[in-house]
Design brief:
Largest sheet: 6 strands, mixed
Structural class: alpha/beta
Helix content: 25-40%
Strand content: 25-35%
Strand order of the largest sheet: 6-7-8-3-9-10
Distance between the termini: 33 Å
CATH topology: Rossmann fold
Number of strands: 10
CATH superfamily: P-loop containing nucleotide triphosphate hydrolases
CATH class: Alpha Beta
Amino acid sequence: MDKLILENLNVQYSDGTESLKNINLKIQDRQVSVLFGPAGGGKSTLLRTLNRLNDLADLRLQSGRVLLDGFDILAKTTHVIALRRRIGMVFSRPALLPLTIYENIVYGLRVAGERRKTHLDGVVEKALRQAVLWDEVYDRLNDSAFDLSGGQQQRLCIARTLALEPEVILLDEPTSALDPVSTAKIESTMRDLAQHLTIIWAPHNTQQAARMADEAFFFLQGELIEFGSAEHMFVRPQDKRTQDYVNGRFG
């Protein structure tokens, strides 16, 4: 089932940079969809478009439609805060609040008006278990989030996103600064979550893209060059540009 459908999406920044050019694609529900390609290809711009972070950018042009369950999220009538609860995002560097571990996770719920402590406690435990972090911090919930290691901080960011029960999670190179053990934990977490959620991942290298993808989309200079299953894209791509990138001839 299609969770997201992009129709003729174009994004151009005010400095003249054309980041996305007539993008048409479909993202399936409950799978890991990987966006890969060299830097500057438009992957981050696409992710930022999907939860309206580009509203904060200096855009010259944004056109086309992005349908979430049939609803155009780029419409002026879209409630952006509500959208960001449905489509959560995790960045390449942990973006923590100067609060405790517990308060980082419940922050969004508190802003939304949730005050029931028993409910918040349950959300914290569930989110931390989903992020494979509970066993490491269950007795440290009142410690500063900044006391955690880098890998733990990134998993805390994932837990904070999961606390809002999103339908889609966007990941922009979430393991680029992490060690192999932390990277493996996050990859395993996302593979498990994809049984229930839609995951859209822009990995930091082709090896990770091949490991994680159910379906992969190759971007080059703002264009969607080719897409298909992981086997198709990383074993037998059809477009020469995809072949050259996957085989390490550029990028």
